[in-house]
C-alpha cells in the first residue's frame, strides 16, 4: 500500500509540473509572437486518493484558481522551475517584463509574483490581466481560506509585484494528508496545550459543568450549522468563551480537555510576545496569529487575557487614544475568528465590558468547597505513598481551603520529600509542611 501511494503521488506531481511547463511555454511563445494564445485549460487530476488531487479536482470548474495554486506551489516542488523555463524559452538578452517574478534572499531561483499570475491568465490582454487581480483580492476564496497570500511589495512598487505565496501548513496537509502545526516562534507565539488527564479527573461544580457542556456542543455541531442559512442567517461564525476564577482552579486544564475530547489542537498564546509598547505592533502581531490559525479548527487560549483585553480608559493623552483603538481592534479580530477563542482571567471585571457582552459562554471557576476538595484529595493521593496512620484526611480537607492545582503541587512536593527520606508513607509533618508551602506561595496566612 505504501509503494502504491508513493507511485500515485509521484504521478500527480509530475502531471502538475508538466501542466505548468506547457502553460508557461505557450504564454512565453505568445509574448514573443511565436504562437497563438491557447485557451486556458484545467489540470486533470485523476488520483482521487491524494488530498492534493482531490483539491485540484474540486477546482476543475475554475481553471484560474487551479493556475494560481499550481504557480504558488512551484518553488516548493521544483525550486529552479521558473528560472529554468525563462532560460530555455527566452532568447539571451531578451527581457520579458510581463513575466514578473523576483529573487529571494536565500532562495536562489525565481519566486512567482502577482504579475506572474497575470502573465499566465491574461497574457497581453489588459482586460484579462485586470480581471485576474480578483483571484488575489481579499474576497477571493483562496485568499479567504488562507491557502494563498499576496505579500506586500516594496514601498512604491505595484501591488501585483508582491510575492505569491502558498500557506506552508496547507501544503503539508495536501502532501501528507495531515495538518502540520506551526512551531512556537515570533510569527506564531503560541504553544500547544496537552494533557494526559480526562474529564473524570476534573472536579467541577454543577454550574461550571453545565456552562462547559454548551462549549462542547459548539465543538461537536458547529460544522453542521456553519454556512447553512436554515439554522439561522444571523448566527455568527466561531465561538467565544470566557473562563474566570482564581489561579489553580482548572482553566488551562479545561481548555486542554475541550481540545482533547473534540480532536482539536489547543494553543496557549504567549502574550509577552504579542503585546508591544510600539504603536500598531500589538495589532500586527495578533493579526498574524489569527491569520495562521484561520480555517484550521484550532482552539486559541489567551491566559491572563486582561493583559491584552483590559478595560478602555478615559482619553487624557494621545497614548490613551491609541490604547483604546488597540482594544477595539482586538475585539473586532476575536469576533472574526472562525473557531473557538477562550479568554481566561482571574477577575472577570478586569476585562472590557464590550468583550464580555460578546461571549457565547461565560464559565466561572471557583475554589473548590469541602466536598470537591475531598474528591480531589482522593483522586490525587499517590498509590505508592499512602497517608500515614496519623493523618486525618477529613480534617485536612476541612481545615485547608486549597485549589486543585495547590493540592496536586503539595502532594508532589510531599512525595519527593518522602522518597528522599526513605519513607513509605506520607506523614502528617510532611503534608503540613507542603500545605504551608502552598499558602506561602499564594501569600496567604497559614491557619496552623
Question: Nutshell version of this structure?
Answer:
The chain has 448 residues and is of the alpha/beta class.
**Count of separate structural domains:** 3
The low-confidence runs, each spanning 5 or more residues with pLDDT under 50, are: 1-9, 312-322
Class by alpha and beta content: alpha/beta
* Average pLDDT: 86
Describe the fold and architecture.
The protein is of the alpha/beta class and 448 residues long. The chain has three domains: 2-176, no CATH class; 190-364, Rossmann fold (3-Layer(aba) Sandwich), CATH 3.40.50; 370-441, Helicase, Ruva Protein, domain 3 (Orthogonal Bundle). Helix content is 47%, strand content 8%. It has 18 helices and ten strands. The strands form three sheets. The chain has a six-stranded mixed β-sheet with strand order 5-7-8-9-6-10, with helices on one face. Strand 7 (266-269), helix 11 and strand 8 (299-302) form a beta-alpha-beta unit. Helix 2 (51-58) crosses helix 8, helix 3 crosses helix 5 (114-122) and helix 15 packs parallel to helix 17 (404-420). The longest helix has 30 residues, at 2-31. Residues 1-9 and 312-322 have low confidence and may be disordered.
Task: Name the descriptors.
448 residues, alpha/beta, Helicase, Ruva Protein, domain 3, six-stranded mixed β-sheet, two-stranded antiparallel sheet, 8% strand, disordered N terminus
